[in-house]
């Protein structure tokens, strides 16, 4: 393995595995999981076939557990660089609360359980998509893309975009245009969201040899690509209304927050060097609100029975 592994084997013996329930919960990346769960709920709510509440609960639970399993496997593999980076050095494995072998076993068991439960509760198309998502995040992104290409976030972002597709497949047994549009929104949201963070944490990534875009291509190129992806994202955010599965509430939210998103991306792109840090932080935080609000508007319209545009 490359030097980026940072002598994990030499330090693994120091990890005493003294963690409690909270440490194993932290392995699941609960903040990331919460957004995954929410987008899956929206995908399930939008599906034309409404599953039984018990099946719906099993679907969301399986997707949540699968997302958490992928997070645990990510932390197991990245323990060496997590120990060095300021943002991640308090995670359970770097602090010695959980041993790497425990995290690996935990992630593998949860992966298998989540896929089997989803398959038995709904259908094997949904279970297969969940299995692929876990594999893509843990193996394709974490073990390969993250340390080999500055496009790691672009390609790897597909893993976080699958939950609404999985939920839709669980409810209907098929994949349709609507969940693919939701997939595209999350997919194009991921690069500007994470590159904004990478601009602030570029020193961390450089220190551990992870080729994030600011490290490899520089700050100016990162700012340019953030703006390009933000522009595509905001246009995609309007598509649900154009295709007739979202209403006027959604359109107003997508247009209003999209304008703010573009304004922040514009300021980051064309502002002087002194604005990079503050504006990148604002964009990173606002991007979370933007994605949440888009999906919340879709859910609110469905729960309130509001008609879609053109219906």
UniProtKB/TrEMBL annotation:
Claim: Cell membrane is one of the keywords in the record: yes
Gene Ontology CC, one term: plasma membrane
Catalytic reaction list: heme b + (2E,6E)-farnesyl diphosphate + H2O = Fe(II)-heme o + diphosphate
One Pfam assignment: UbiA
Subcellular location: Cell membrane
Any one GO molecular function term: protoheme IX farnesyltransferase activity
E.C. code: 2.5.1.141
Pathway, per record: Porphyrin-containing compound metabolism; heme O biosynthesis; heme O from protoheme: step 1/1
Entry keyword Repressor: no
Transmembrane segments: 32-49, 55-77, 97-118, 124-145, 152-171, 177-200, 226-243, 249-268, 280-300
Protein topology in the membrane: Multi-pass membrane protein
Gene Ontology biological process: heme O biosynthetic process
Enzyme class: transferase
Keywords annotated in UniProt: Cell membrane, Heme biosynthesis, Membrane, Transferase, Transmembrane, Transmembrane helix
Source domain of life: Bacteria
Other facts: Carbon 2 of the heme B porphyrin ring is defined according to the Fischer nomenclature.
Known role: Converts heme B (protoheme IX) to heme O by substitution of the vinyl group on carbon 2 of heme B porphyrin ring with a hydroxyethyl farnesyl side group.
Family listed: Belongs to the UbiA prenyltransferase family. Protoheme IX farnesyltransferase subfamily.
NCBIfam families: cyoE_ctaB (TIGR01473), PRK04375.1-2 (NF003349)
Record protein name field: Protoheme IX farnesyltransferase
């Amino acid at each position: 393995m490359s030097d980026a592994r940072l002598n994990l084997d030499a330090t693994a013996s120091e990890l005493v595995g003294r963690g409690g329930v909270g440490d194993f919960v932290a392995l699941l990346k609960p903040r990331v999981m919460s957004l995954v769960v929410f987008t899956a709920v929206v995908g399930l709510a939008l599906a034309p076939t409404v599953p039984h509440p018990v099946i719906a609960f099993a679907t969301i639970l399986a997707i949540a557990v699968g997302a958490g399993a992928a997070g645990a496997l990510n932390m197991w593999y990245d323990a060496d660089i997590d120990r060095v980076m300021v943002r991640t050095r308090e995670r359970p494995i770097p602090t010695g609360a959980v041993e790497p072998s425990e995290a690996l076993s935990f992630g593998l068991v949860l992966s298998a359980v989540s896929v089997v439960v989803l398959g038995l509760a709904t259908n094997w198309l949904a279970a297969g998509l969940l299995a692929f998502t876990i594999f893509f995040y843990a193996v394709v992104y974490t073990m390969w893309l993250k340390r080999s290409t500055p496009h790691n976030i672009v390609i790897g972002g597909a893993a976080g975009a699958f939950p609404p597709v999985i939920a839709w497949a669980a409810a209907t047994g098929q994949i349709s245009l609507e969940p693919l549009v939701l997939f595209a929104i999350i997919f194009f949201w991921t690069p500007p969201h994470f590159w904004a963070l990478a601009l602030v944490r570029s020193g961390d990534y450089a220190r551990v040899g992870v080729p994030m875009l600011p490290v490899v291509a520089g700050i100016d190129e990162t700012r340019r690509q953030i703006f390009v992806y933000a522009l595509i994202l905001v246009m995609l955010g309007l598509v649900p209304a154009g295709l007739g599965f979202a209403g006027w509430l959604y359109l107003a939210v997508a247009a209003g927050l999209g304008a703010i998103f573009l304004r922040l991306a514009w300021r980051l792109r064309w502002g002087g060097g002194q604005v990079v840090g503050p504006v990148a932080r604002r964009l990173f935080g606002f991007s979370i609100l933007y994605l949440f609000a888009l999906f919340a508007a879709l859910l609110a319209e469905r729960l309130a029975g509001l008609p879609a545009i053109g219906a």
